[in-house]
Write a structure and sequence with these properties.
The two termini are 23 Å apart. A hairpin with a 5-residue loop joins strand 5 and strand 6. An eight-stranded parallel beta barrel has the order 1-3-4-7-8-13-14-15, surrounded by nine helices. It has twelve helices and 15 strands. The chain has a single domain, classed as Alpha-Beta Barrel (TIM Barrel). It has 354 residues and is α/β, with parallel strands linked by helices. The mean pLDDT is 87. Helix 3 packs parallel to helix 4 and helix 10 packs across helix 12.
């Protein structure tokens, strides 16, 4: 038996189509479980296409959507790369068919997130015009403000949810949480992952993983989880592991992507946003080896991210991995690859989308 909660005010045409399918669906009450199992198309989930907006303030204090190669978001002349205004771009992506919108706040906070009014306003204004799930990431952890008052990660997340977010994304803090969990193997209930998922549900917590490849000659050279790669390292190394990073990729930690994903799932996370520093900005396609390693180890959905450069990369990741969704940023911002073209291509390949 399955049940769902229907929110007509957030669903628009897509929701009406879902409701129509419910009303007109074949009555399966007389169909045996074996017959249903033999026809997996009845329960197949559509793949999601997600547009990601990295948002930060420029040198004039205005919030802009930006994107950079290997996390460098400044132009050659020094100014922050400006690819548009957050609310306007989010609405455009919604109208083009994006299934979800993700905002990553990469601005250094003036005090702490609950006083970051411009980003809260972006969420509020977007939720009035965009009727697909909104995810917000950046600074979702415990803070003490300049007056000495402490706010928990749950307090910060609640402010984002009240402003229109459907999910929150935790990045660097998730790595530190996983490190502590791996040491003890015990849940404390005190981490932001546990607190937020306990109140808002697992589906509201997304873990953003930022790994980079570390090449080794043999699995015996590291205690981390390795793979035998089809793309050898600079000295011919045939194996690699994926080192998790924090602080926007600037600091590597002794925990790998598989350890992070499985730990966070155990603590209550409901989805993994799987980036790859090596692929970011390359337009060379997703890291299929990384995605397969993580997807095979968790039961929660995995969003493939980093490296998309053409429509074929989206069909490739869905055909070669079990990823439930694929995310892109720069190619959508620069209108090099329209979302509508991605969905048309996927349909032509027989890959179901929303």
């Amino acid at each position: 038996m399955a049940a769902c909660q229907f929110h007509p005010e957030k669903s628009g045409a897509a929701g009406l189509a879902i409701l129509k399918n419910f009303l007109e669906a074949t009555d399966l009450s007389a169909v045996s479980p074996m017959e249903i199992a033999a026809n997996p198309a009845e329960t197949r989930l559509a793949k999601r296409i997600i547009a990601c907006l990295d948002v930060r303030s420029n040198d004039n204090g205005d919030l802009v959507v930006t994107k950079g190669d290997q996390y460098d978001v400044r132009e050659a002349h020094g100014e922050v790369r400006n690819l548009g205004k957050p609310v306007e771009l989010a609405r455009r992506y919604y109208e083009e068919g994006a299934d979800e919108i993700t905002f990553l706040n990469i601005t250094g906070f003036r005090d702490f997130p609950m006083k970051d009014q411009p980003m809260l306003e972006v969420l509020q204004r977007t939720s009035e015009q965009v009727f697909v799930p909104l995810t917000i990431g950046g600074g979702i952890r415990g803070f003490t403000d300049s007056t000495g008052k402490h706010y928990s990660a749950l307090d910060v997340a609640a402010e984002y949810f009240r402003s229109g977010a459907d999910k929150i994304s935790i990045g660097s803090d998730a790595v530190l949480i996983a490190e502590e969990y791996l040491k003890s193997g015990q849940k404390t209930g005190a981490s932001s992952i546990e607190q937020i998922s306990a109140v808002y549900g697992n589906q509201a917590v997304v873990i953003s993983v930022d790994p980079r490849r570390v090449y080794v000659k043999s699995p015996a050279d590291t205690p981390r989880h390795t793979i035998k790669t089809r793309f050898p390292g600079p000295n011919g190394e045939e194996y690699c592991w994926y080192q998790c990073t924090i602080k926007g990729g600037r600091e590597g930690r002794e925990v790998d992507a598989l350890e992070l994903a499985t730990s966070c799932e155990a603590l209550g996370a409901g989805e993994i946003l799987l980036n790859c520093i090596d692929k970011d900005g390359t337009n060379s396609g997703f890291d299929l080896e990384l995605i397969n390693q993580v997807r095979s180890a968790v039961s929660i959905p995995v969003i493939a991210s980093s490296g998309a450069g053409k429509v074929e990369h989206f069909s490739e990741v869905f055909e070669a991995t079990g990823a439930e969704a694929a995310l892109a940023a720069g190619i959508f911002h620069r209108q090099e690859v329209p979302i509508s073209a991605v969905k048309a291509h996927l349909r032509s390949k027989g890959i179901e989308t929303r």
